[in-house]
Amino acid sequence: MEAQIIVSGLLIGGVYGIAALGLGLVWGVMSVVNVAHGDLLIFLAYMTWAMAVTQSLPPFVALLFLLPGGFLMGVFLYHLLVRHLIRRSDVELMSLVLFFGLSAIVYGLAAYQWGSDFRSMPIPLPTLRILGVVVPGTRLAAFIIGAGLVLGLRWFFRKTYWGKAIRAVAQSRDSARALGIDPDRVSAVAFGIALAYAGVAGALIAMTSPLSPSLGVAYAGRSFAVVVLGGLGNPVGTLVAGIVLGLSESLSSLWITFGLSPAVAFVLLIAVLIVRPQGLFKPIRSQ
Amino acid sequence: MKTAVSDLLLDRRNPTRILNVALVAAGVIGIGLVAFQPALPGASLVFWFNLMKAIVLAQSLNLITGFTGYVDFGHVVFYGLGTYVAGIAIGMLGVALPVPLWVFVGPLLVTLIAVLVGMPALRLRGAYFAIAMLSFNAATRLVILNLPRDFAGGAFGIPTPRIYDPRTAYYGMVALLVVITLFTIWLGNSRFGVGLKAIRDDEGAAGVMGIRTTRYKLAAFAASAYFAATAGSVDYWFVAFTSNELVFNNVVTVEMVAGVFLGGAGTVVGPVLGAGILYLVRDFLWVRFPYLYLPMFGVVIAAVVLWVPRGIVGFVEDHVPALRAKIR
Question: Cβ of A105 and B250 within 8 Å?
Fold first, then answer.
């Protein structure tokens, strides 16, 4: 039983990691706190569901559409909302309120379009049985895709021009500008990457669990806990923190009760903020 | 005292004169609400009651978010706990106190919870506090849902038909509206209120200036929670029902935040204006576009942040020069 629970927690933790990454990236690079992140995740998950069920596209193909789709959505949102805000001195506070508004918009549109009933789609991969432990193939694939993309981002930050430019802007917009980097363009790309990753995460969520617009809050809470634990915009830290959360949730549903497992993120968040507010890993700003 | 009152209303040198005149007008309207209540048909009774409730809730959020600068995205939790404090005590345990008294005393329990939560949570700043509260609301909803059904009603909620008396409960909300308005006016001019605004503007500097920031923040948070909880308790008295799907709903927080920022955070009349306007708009939209009113509230919040970050009150200050000196 314990082995089963640990495997499920581990696998879902990979999804939590990639789900939280976009939030931490935007927060770490431009001090913008995207409270709408959870609702955007669920919105993108519904897009996968819509493509898979109404257009009968294989979910893994839908995922490939969401990567560029999320990127464009991110760049669009950056130019629509964030660019005007980012120069103000109270950017963190005002972005909080602004994205709270966006969260209401996205949640409301999802509830309008898809209703508040739970929706799920056919599971595309068979279930495996390894050493007596049931491993749903979709969850395993979701974990591999999530973990792979997160580690890919680490490579991107270290080795590519755009990755280095994003880190430079995260450290100081002004210094980056002095070095000939356009902080606006780089921030737009960072926002795009954040939502592209949210798009993939949304697709993985749609494949592994039933959807309802109200899941947005749960995912916002989880993402914040993961980001705080894993360091803002630190890919590896975020993945590890996601797995920690996944394990904590599944173990608590074993030891306490299943109904309370969404509250685990809250307890974890508060505990980390009080005991070790700087998180366990270095944020992108100081890498 | 007599001179003080005339100074507040008539002395052109008094910086808050315009606000005070507006508030006296609000007081007159409030007395009107009381006097005309028996003449209201049932449907408008609900309309006026909920309008007052929306204003009280927005104003309660304003105490912690507008004055102190701690954005609370889970503020609805105190409203929800307020309904449950009334529901559990009156409906489940049969508390001995009369209902009209309990709806004002019971919320003190919620205030106690707020202090216990606030002690760790208010050590967090900015986004961390906002998210901690957002999750606190979600967690509280789950805990209440999982409490024993004969104590907290489970998913079914707590109906108490025997206390159903909306025409009397209506006066409870009028009283609460008057109290919170007076409290906010006092706050706007008091040493305590100035201390809170100093914390909002620069918490470190406020601490250096000798303000006991932790105590100030906790006091503001406690007051804020008390008023939201009492709005919940009085609401329970009005409808004689609560259920956790309804009362821990983030939509209510969205309405409060929209009201505070549309009107002007950290001002006395702002949340009254903002919540009042939005309530009228909502009442209009709710019937015609039941699904689109939430996105519309979101658009209001986003538009205010982008174009009029100081809300209606700030906009008037900036664009009507004749009022600028007087309101400041």
Answer: no
Minimal Cβ distance to B146: which of A111, A221, A259: A259
- In A, which residues are within 8 Å of B142 by CB distance? 259-260, 262-263
Whole-angstrom Cα distance, residue B158 to residue B150?
9
- Regarding pTM above 0.90, the answer is no
C-alpha B122/C-alpha B130 separation (Å) is 10
Q: Which run of H or E residues covers position A129?
A: strand A127-130
Rounded to 5 degrees, what are φ and ψ at B264?
135, 105
The 10s digit of each residue's pLDDT in B124-177 is 877 888 888 888 898 888 889 888 888 888 888 888 888 888 888 888 998 899
B-chain CB neighbours of A38 within 8 Å are: none
CA distance to partner chain B, nearest, from residue A259 (Å): 7
> Helices (DSSP H) in B240-310: which residue ranges?
244-247, 250-263, 270-288, 293-307
Q: Look at residues B191, B140, B185, B170 and name the one whose alpha carbon lies nearest to residue B19.
A: B185
B122-139 burial by CB neighbour count: b if 16+ within 10 A, else e? bebebbbbbbbbbbbbbb
| Contact by Cβ (8 Å): A238, A61 | no
CB-count burial class (<10 Å; 0-12, 13-18, 19+) for B171: middle
What domain range is B277 assigned to? 2-327
B142·A103 Cβ contact <8 A: no
Q: How many domains does chain B have?
A: 1
Instruction: Tell which residue, B95, B135, B126, has the closest CA to residue A277.
Output: B126
The interface predicted TM-score (ipTM) is 0.82
- CATH placement of domain A2-286: 1.10.3470
- Parse chain A into domains and list their residue ranges: 2-286
**Cα separation of B291 and B298, whole Å?**
13
